[in-house]
Amino acid sequence: MVAQDARRFLRSRVRPLAALALWSLLESAHTFLGGYGVARALDDGFLAGRAATGAAWLAAAGVGALLGGFALRGVFAGLADLVEPLRDGLVRRAVRQALAAAVADPAKAADARAVSRLTQQTEMARDSFAGLVLTARSFVFTAVGALVGMAALAPVLLLVVLPPLLLGLAAFLATLRPMAAVQRESLDTEEALASRVGEAAGALRDITACGGGAAVAARVEPLIAAQERLAGRLAGWGAVRTVALGLAGRAPVVALLAATPWLLGRGITAGALAGAVTYLVQSLLPALDTLMAALGSAGTRLLVVLERFCTPPAPAPPRPTTGPAVGDGPAGAAAELRGVTFAYGPHAHPVLQGLDLRVRPGEHLAVVGPSGIGKSTLTALLAGLLTPDRGVVLVAGAPARPAAGGGPDPRRTLLPQQAYVFTASVRDNLTHLCPGPVSGARLDAAVAALRLGDLITRLGGYDAVLDPLRLSQGERQLLALGAAHLSPAPLLLLDEATCHLDPEAEEHAERALAARPGTLVVVAHRISSAARADRVLVLDGTRAVCGTHDELPARSALYRDLVGMWGEEQPVAPA
Ligand SMILES: Nc1ncnc2c1ncn2[C@@H]1O[C@H](COP(=O)(O)OP(=O)(O)OP(=O)(O)O)[C@@H](O)[C@H]1O
């Protein structure tokens, strides 16, 4: 995959590659002149007693160095044409992958990996690629310049220098593939180890409480052992690579020195020998060392980053579902859960699992179930205060999310058991969920609907300032219910928001809120509250059943028990 993409990219960048090659060719002239100038300066100049000629050849080598500098400037300019498009392409790919993931699962929070890909990883790929191109190109053209120079001085020099150089390079190239495989395996093991240790770290308290230390250690230790073994293998390959490099870089110098008497006997001049040593020590060795360092660090980084980009993201795991949506109805639901699974923590038992639910516009739905079964969790998910681990929660067709800016959400109002009342006028307490001013007539209508008149008179009228500490729990709940009635949100979620009212006041409040335009979801505190609703959702472990109060006893043993055990006026969920 990476190789295929790399080939396609390089084919699309023929012009910048050709420009780089031309500049590099000019740079190799500098290498050529470096050794050749030294040889000629000795043979034709200083050793022949012609100092001026010697100095002229040295000057020519100096001009070669200037030419090399000029060529390097061109190389850097051409490099940008090759490297920047790579970065742009990777950025495009990262954006496409992030968008595809967001479209596939709109409720999921933004993937942090996408941000890392867009910023750090694309920069890393660009820098590594630039470093590799620079060093690989420099090595190739330096080698060409040096070998052509030696051939120009005396072809027999190549006979001595080339075999150890080629042997060393072949050995080095042979290490690339197995070393990359070990490196990849090592990275995979490292990631697996990090994720397993991360899992364990998130559940240390539970592991200790359950005495699960040995079991966790048994899962982690094989990975640590594998990592240690792979680190050893990597070090072994690193040693082979160093030997190969030593062979390619140093052995030609040793061979040349060892063959000097033989070469002198064949008429090779001292100048040619000095030129050859200059090529090896001044040009080839540094280029080889830089290439090795670059391949070892930037090469590995580039390979890993490109693999991350080129491997298509894993498809989202299939959504677990408990069958057809509870409360199926026509499209355009007021609120909807699709395959929702939620747990309080990565290792906690899910409170809801694969729950499908559709609440119709204008419907009055009651949610019942034993204490701790997940009723509040369900309302918090509908309110967008919690995000499902899997699946989607939609309110009026859009993912449920907390309101931007922290203000009241125009799509839903959630009243918890602890009513929110604050030190301000009665009017402010009743209208704080409304975006604009509320007319006196609307205020009066809501107060009448909820029968709050007596309470407000007792408190001193709409403009009296409230002291929340002097209100009873029931009075606070009544004021909060008044605010909910006035709120324009089409979805009203009551999470035991009437638990401090007597059954009669509760019935009146619920009927008033159900009569208000919009949809009402009530976590029922009494069976009478469920009996009033259009439908009842019975939460039973990770199972859920939805139906009318009349049909549910036949369909849900739990509902039958709830009705039978507590009677019509008793709490559904005992505290
Ligand atoms: N913030 C939290 N962190 C961890 N676990 C939680 C948290 N909130 C609730 N739980 C657990 O999740 C489960 C469901 O809780 P939830 O409050 O949704 O149940 P409930 O049916 O509303 O209960 P009740 O009728 O008592 O209010 C319970 O086991 C509870 O202990």
TrEMBL record:
It is a multi-pass membrane protein. The chain crosses the membrane at residues 55-83, 129-150, 156-176. Residues 18-286 form the ABC transmembrane type-1 domain. It is found in: Cell membrane. GO terms for molecular function: ATP binding. The keyword ATP-binding applies. Keywords: ATP-binding, Membrane, Nucleotide-binding, Transmembrane, Transmembrane helix. Residues 335-565 form the ABC transporter domain. InterPro entries: AAA+_ATPase, ABC1_TM_dom, ABC1_TM_sf, ABC_transporter-like_ATP-bd, P-loop_NTPase, Type_1_exporter. This is ABC transporter ATP-binding protein. It comes from Streptomyces cirratus. The lineage of its organism: Bacteria, Bacillati, Actinomycetota, Actinomycetes, Kitasatosporales.
